[in-house]
Amino acid sequence: MEKIKVAIAGPRGRMGKEAMIMVQDSENLELVAVVDHRYGGEFLTTQAGDQSQVPIYGDCTACFTSTKVDVLVDFTTPEVGRENVQIALRHQVRPVVGTTGFTEDNINLLAQLASEQKVGAVIAPNFALGAVLMMKFAKMATKYYGDIEIIEMHHDQKLDAPSGTAIKTAETMATERAEHKQGHTDEKELIDGARGADFQGMRIHSIRLPGLVAHQQVIFGGTGETLTIRHDSFHRSSFMTGVKLSIETVMKLDTLVYGLENILD
């Protein structure tokens, strides 16, 4: 069986490093290039040693015009990621994107381009299977509880807040919940932001601390009770099962899919 040829953008980041390890450890995947503006023109020595070096390109255009790539895995920044996805689609390369911070307009634009090019793409706010199940269970619970708060906790180097997972969770639950204001009608914030972000009346709280990786709890309040659904990623390797599944699945797609839950059986 021919291996899927993978390029990784953002190889110096923590997620990029884990993705490189996963690809090199997978029998059906081959790391053929990385994209890194700082080290373009150099070579990355793989786990196979000096005899198996991978070229580093300064940008995606140079990468795709010089190397045969099936799938681009992007763990960069929202601005760079959007550009990388557009370049990939125009070069018939399938993007798998874990970069968060994309707006709804960004995703719609990229989905339109993917459809025009007839090239599959996967954008997922979270690649951890447990996180996807948390969102599914939260949506189920929303049918019975209308008052909800989300607490998401990440490492202190995360750029966006709330997290993409928290926003996706709120969006998913909003399909089962009538929009309404929670708490006392006359409540006042003595310090701005004390009640967190407001998403259709649901509150989202973001915590950023060293030592954390990615954690989220969805708390439902009812008469005389609460229900908490929580997921914790203690190591970035927890995301790689979803990344690998997305790489394999995107080869069969010709449209953009947003959210790992939409490619799970």
Please describe what this structure looks like.
- The two termini are 24 Å apart.
- An 8-stranded mixed β-sheet has the order 3-4-2-1-5-6-7-13, with helices on both faces.
- The longest helix has 14 residues, at 104-117.
- It has 265 residues and is an alpha/beta fold.
- It is built from 7 helices and 13 strands.
- The protein has helices at 14-25, 60-66, 78-90, 104-117, 129-142, 164-174, 240-250; strands at residues 4-9, 29-35, 43-46, 49-57, 71-74, 94-97, 121-123, 147-154, 197-199, 202-208, 214-222, 225-233, 256-258.
Key words describing this protein structure:
single chain; 265 residues; alpha/beta; 5-stranded mixed β-sheet; 13 strands; 29% strand
Short description, anyone?
The protein is α/β, with parallel strands linked by helices and 265 residues long. It contains seven helices and 13 strands. The two termini are 24 Å apart.
List the helices and strands and how they pair.
Elements: E1 4-9, H1 14-25, E2 29-35, E3 43-46, E4 49-57, H2 60-66, E5 71-74, H3 78-90, E6 94-97, H4 104-117, E7 121-123, H5 129-142, E8 147-154, H6 164-174, E9 197-199, E10 202-208, E11 214-222, E12 225-233, H7 240-250, E13 256-258
Parallel strand pairs: 1-2, 1-5, 2-4, 5-6, 6-7, 7-13, 8-10
Antiparallel strand pairs: 3-4, 8-11, 9-10, 11-12
